[in-house]
Amino acid sequence: MATVLIFGCGWLGSQLGVALAGAGHQVYGSRRSAQSLLTLPPQIQPLCWDGQSPFGSSIQALLPDSWVILAMPPAAQRDGGSAYLDSLQRVLGQSSRAKGLILCSSTGVYAGLAGRVNESAAPGPEPRAALLWQAEQLVRQHPAPYILRLAGLVGPGRHPAGFTRRGLMAGPEQPVNLVHSADVCLWVCQLLTVSGHGFPQVVNLSAPLTATKVEFYTAACIRAEVAVPQFVAATEPARTVDASLSQRDTGFVYRHHDISSLCS
Question: What is the rounded distance in angstroms from the CA atom of residue 104 to the CA atom of residue 86?
Fold first, then answer.
């Protein structure tokens, strides 16, 4: 089993840590302050790193021969994402001897594109795609990079019924691109089980869902017992994320692939 360091144990990073620990890996997770580490799941051994300072000796000692997962959110609102890119660069500079470097990226890298998009389509023309693309290019400098382009994340505490904005949902006939956090965890567990052999280095993770937004979000809101949103005209092109590569030659199967399971 592997030693795993997760930089950014927030909503997704913490779930990844618990899943990997349950699979027998030794998992360490970072948060920005000692106070925030108090609520870290007990399956994850705590590390404090503010995202900018040089690594302490405890982190440096763990990096060689470990797997490193970058689960920090881009947070572009404040500084255009420069602090996020600096954090990635700092980790990259210290992780050349790691067994693998996994970036939790986003299908937002296709923003502005229309139609069916696969891993070769990025980046999209929208400004928000640029930061994700820059982050991916940094990670590609590692000897063993793995880039996970995650569709809209749902899971514990993140029900899709909460995605409506002020009771509105744009593009009723557009496709839905979501992935459950449990499937992301399963993918990463399988990746580490085979030490990356045969797994693609850039992959879309998105549930094979065929429902339109009006079908999906109407059902999601009814299940959550909240008001169904008003559907209005689309504000961006319709886009379907092609995630067939995530299942091709890997043996991976999405557990959450329909309205019922994605709303659980």
Answer: 16
